[in-house]
Amino acid sequence: MDQHIRAQLEAYAIQPTTQRLAIAATVLHTDRHPSADEIFETVNRELPTVSRATVYNTLNLFVEKGLCRTLTLREGRIVYDPNMDPHHHLLDEESGRIYDLPWDALEVTLNTPIDGFDVTTMEVVVRANRRDDDLLCGGP
Fold this sequence. Notes:
- The protein starts with a helix and ends with a helix.
- It has helices at about 1-10, 20-25, 35-45, 50-65, 135; strands at about 70-75, 75-80, 85-90, 100, 125-130.
- The longest helix has 14 residues, at about 50-65.
- It is of the alpha+beta class and about 140 residues long.
- It has two domains: about 1-80, Winged helix-like DNA-binding domain superfamily/Winged helix DNA-binding domain (Arc Repressor Mutant, subunit A, Orthogonal Bundle); about 85-135, no CATH class.
- The strands form two sheets. A three-stranded mixed β-sheet has the order 4-3-5, with no helix packed on it.
- Helix 2 packs across helix 3 and helix 2 packs across helix 4.
- It contains five helices and five strands.
- Strand 3 (about 85-90) and strand 4 form a beta hairpin.
């Protein structure tokens, strides 16, 4: 795994330091959408000398280079999404967990053009409360 992560960083012209490799392993290879603080806590267990600033700076670098993106799905809470393919999100209102929804799970159309703008992408955030009957909703 370490060689794969190293190659991934090098492919994006990022010097693969020990700290960056640990941060990449935490944020780029997960189906979760962790916050910077969650990433810091995870990496800090493995590398107690890593600073919070290093984690934030590295995450900003990853976003700048296109390895992941930030999402603000709740006011004041930024999370990181390593899935760069087109997709939507489902936010479980009770747990706060964010799930990826396949692009074709929803049909999204722009019914009228927006004057002065060329729409380049659209994203949908579905906010939901989990039902007890998973058979009805096919829960993620």
